[in-house]
Amino acid sequence: MKSRSTVLTAEQTTFFIRQRVARLATADARGTPHAIPVCFAYASGTIFIALDEKPKNVPPERLKRVRNILENPNVALVADRYAEDWRLLAFVMIRGRARLVESDTAGHAAAVKLLRGKYHQYETMRIEDNPIITIEVENAASWGALDTPESGGTFVLETIRGRRSVRRYLPKAVPDSAVELVLEAARWAPSPHGRQPWRFAVITKKESKQRLADAMGEEWRANLQMDGQSAEIVEKRLEGSRNRLLDAPVLIMLCLYLEDLDVYPDEDRQRNETTMAVQSVGAAAQNALLAAYDLGLDAGWMCAPLFVPQKAAEALGLSPKLVPHALLTLGYADGDPPKRRSRRPLDGLVIYRD
Ligand SMILES: Cc1cc2nc3c(=O)[nH]c(=O)nc-3n(C[C@H](O)[C@H](O)[C@H](O)COP(=O)(O)O)c2cc1C
Questions:
Q1: Ligand 1: which residue has its CA nearest to atom 25?
Q2: Residues of the chain with pLDDT under 70
Q3: Ligand 1 center from residue 303 Cα (angstroms)
Q4: Which of 88, 108, 235, 309 is least surrounded by CB atoms within 10 angstroms?
Q5: Ligand 1 pocket, CB under 6 A
Q6: How far, in Å, is the centroid of ligand 1 from the Cα of 325?
Q7: CB < 8 Å & 24+ apart, contacts of 3-9
Q8: Which of 160, 165, 168, 251 to mutate to test ligand 1, by most ligand atoms within 8 A of the CB atom?
Q9: Sign of dihedral through CA atoms 289, 295, 299, 305?
Q10: Distance, CA of 330 to CA of 333 (rounded, Å)
């Protein structure tokens, strides 16, 4: 399983770029070693490491790793996976030559972009003001189960299979911090051109829920009557839906926001652009639902606002540029949901074409 090469193999690259932290070893001119954990990004044979210390507090040249690199550019970097199941152990060790890329020189801006792409925490840190350490990879050694996924895929599948639509909630408050994490998960959804064509309205006050339920209920009543449902059934369904809104501790209205999308001269492409945005709202919704479940919360999806977007927006005092598309209810399930969950077997859903 051991391999040595001048560039990373596909196996080593796959393992290496998924690691969030590595250990950087430097040495001074006399060979005295120094090792520290670092965040890093990798592209085309080069590793990039930011210096995130505030320049005023610690000038970069005062940092031991920087002084060592200036005295002796030979460095080693190891990224590893430890697990109690030793079949999962693995590491990639890289040797190379390091240098400092100053903030006003070529390649610095691209390196900052790469690092921010990997670590969202860098988005709000002024790493662009400091030099970046780059390491040209000279050779790499590796060992262990590089190709084994961290959890064998079970973690994500457990969450995906465990999540279920909940329609009745306990009267138990949801901490703001949990709601924020759910929204955080939603904003990391994929979106067309990365434009994030969604906005999220969070509703917790009873009066707001009531206004929303009233606004959506009117239209639904008219629709149900149009469908020829008996007055009794209409009232029962309306009451059920209303209670769902009022009883859920938190509501999140997912709104489509088209203002930042591309504009095309032809209808076809414009329609597809909108479709992509709607697909992306679905992705944000799924992120939110999975995050909620993973946080010990439960959630449900209500399509009602889609049928009365204007009324729903007005009831919540939202800008007309926000188009309500789906309402997520959030809270703690009042018992297991009665609906049986089943899925079609995979072979009824997949068409393989070689
Ligand atoms: C676009 C969309 C709209 C939905 N609208 C509603 C709804 O209005 N009311 C409701 O009770 N469930 C709604 N659901 C939830 C589905 O009924 C539910 O996902 C499905 O029955 C499968 O159950 P599960 O989510 O527990 O796996 C909606 C789901 C999607 C994806």
A1: 165
A2: 1-6, 53-57, 150-152
A3: 8
A4: 235
A5: 164-165, 167, 301-304, 341
A6: 13
A7: 3/140, 3/141, 3/142, 4/139, 4/140, 4/141, 5/139, 5/140, 6/137, 6/138, 6/139, 7/45, 7/137, 7/140, 8/42, 8/45, 8/92, 8/94, 8/137, 8/140, 9/140, 9/142
A8: 165
A9: negative
A10: 9
**What angle, 0 to 180 degrees and rounded to 10, lies between the N-to-C axes of helices 267-294 and 154-162?**
100
Place of tokens 């190709």: 147
Pocket test for ligand 1, best of 301, 325, 336, 343 (most atoms within 8 A of CB): 301
The residue whose CA is least distant from atom 3 of ligand 1 is 303
The count of other CB atoms within 10 Å of the CB of residue 58 is 13
Contact 42, 7 (CB under 8 A): no
pTM of the model: 0.84
Q: Nearest residue CA, atom 14 of ligand 1?
A: 301
Residue with CA at minimum distance from ligand 1 atom 10:
302
* Secondary structure (3-state) at 240: helix
Choose the residue to mutate in 212, 224, 303 for probing ligand 1, maximizing ligand atoms within 8 Å of C-beta: 303
Rounding to the nearest 10 degrees, give the CA dihedral for residues 197, 202, 208, 209: 90
- Which distant-in-sequence residues (6+ apart) come within 8 Å of 267 by Cβ? none
Residues 6+ apart with CB under 8 A from 31: 72
Alpha helices by DSSP H, 119-257: 154-162, 176-187, 206-226, 231-247
- What are the tokens at 342? 């089943």
